[in-house]
Specification:
94 residues, alpha+beta, Alpha-Beta Plaits, 4-stranded antiparallel sheet, elongated
Length: 94
């Protein structure tokens, strides 16, 4: 796995917002995928380049008056496996 691919997978987030928004907001949220839930909430899923970009997205949510319910980093199995392999190699060097 290339280093850039690993970084991308480690920066995948889900942002839950109260209420439904439609897919026309995707551009405003830097191309995040928009999924509405039957419960009445919206889940935004996508990659951010770094913490500054994540904070920028959260600022947009705040400034729009939307209610932020949660922010979660998605832990993909491949990203977890890459981390485990890296730790294993570091232990072997010790």
């Amino acid at each position: 796995m290339k280093r850039n691919e690993n970084i991308k997978k480690e920066h995948l987030y889900q942002i839950k917002i109260k209420g439904h928004i439609d897919s026309s907001w995707a551009g405003w949220f830097d191309g995040f995928h928009i999924n509405t839930e039957e419960s009445g909430n919206t889940i935004l899923t996508g990659e951010v380049a770094d913490q500054a970009a994540l904070h920028g997205l959260l600022k947009r949510v705040r400034n729009s008056g939307m209610t932020l319910l949660s922010v979660n980093q998605i832990n993909l199995p491949e990203a977890a496996e890459a981390k485990n392999q890296k730790l294993k190699k570091e232990k072997e060097k010790s």
